[in-house]
Amino acid sequence: MKKLSARRRHPLAALVVLLFALAVTGGLYAAFAPADKAQADTTAQSLAIKEGKQLYTTGCASCHGTGGQGTSDGPSLVGVGAAAVDFQVGTGRMPLQQQGAQAPKKPVVYTQAEIDQMAAYIASLGPGPAVPSEDQYNPEGADIAKGGELFRTNCAQCHNFTGKGGALTSGKYAPALEDVTPKHIYEAMLTGPQAMPVFPDTTVTEQDKKDIIAYLGEVNSEKSASPGGLDLGGFGPVSEGLFAWTFGLGAMIAVAVWVAARTAKARKS
């Protein structure tokens, strides 16, 4: 009897019971808590899609079709992803006021919450690029010099080497990038709006995109604004060379004419 009593009073028994209780509690929490959170997220997403569909039907379906399949007045939106919606609607390019060679940037019609809802609906039609997070497009700590190299290699042909924009063919143009937010620059590279090619992360990595955004922020900042005087539109050596050639040569011709006139007058005297 003494031996049995001693076993029941073993000091590790309470510890074993406590550990077992903690394990059971943790298991039950892991089994049920994530499911509740996932269910709440699913419900919120479903509501956003429903609200987005209503907004889409009112403002977009006349051009893009009732199911986003596209019409003769607008391309299909199946598979363009939420990032394309956030860019096009978030910069005011959509809804389009009238058909033209290119959709211009204009005041935004919808709130950001409404844009997010429409983006959720379009994303439900087919897989596509998602709206980037702030961590993806925040240029803090990025390599500005490398961003300049990447921009001059991939973007300067259309946007000019400081992002001032430029004309393209058939009435299209590359817009200026001076007042474009980092998120919209990232989304433009990700989705390729208008005549712009797509630069997925497999071609231009997430870090490369950050470097490009940092470069544009640097060259268009106030501290970089023409420290030497007139910037001639920031269009680079071609415009500067033309300016120097036209006005420099013109000044030389004027001086030559003046000297010749003075010489002829002196001879007559």
Automatic annotation (TrEMBL):
Endpoints of the signal sequence: 1-30
Membrane topology category: Multi-pass membrane protein
SUPFAM superfamilies assigned to the protein according to its UniProt record, in alphabetical order: Cytochrome c
InterPro entries in alphabetical order: bc1_cytC-su (IPR009152), Cyt_c-like_dom (IPR009056), Cyt_c-like_dom_sf (IPR036909), Cytochrome_c_Oxidase_Subunit (IPR050597)
EC number: 7.1.1.8
Keyword field: Cell membrane, Electron transport, Heme, Iron, Membrane, Metal-binding, Repeat, Respiratory chain, Signal, Translocase, Transmembrane, Transmembrane helix, Transport
Quaternary data: The cytochrome bc1 complex is composed of a cytochrome b (QcrB), the Rieske iron-sulfur protein (QcrA) and a diheme cytochrome c (QcrC) subunit.
Name of the protein this chain belongs to: Cytochrome bc1 complex cytochrome c subunit
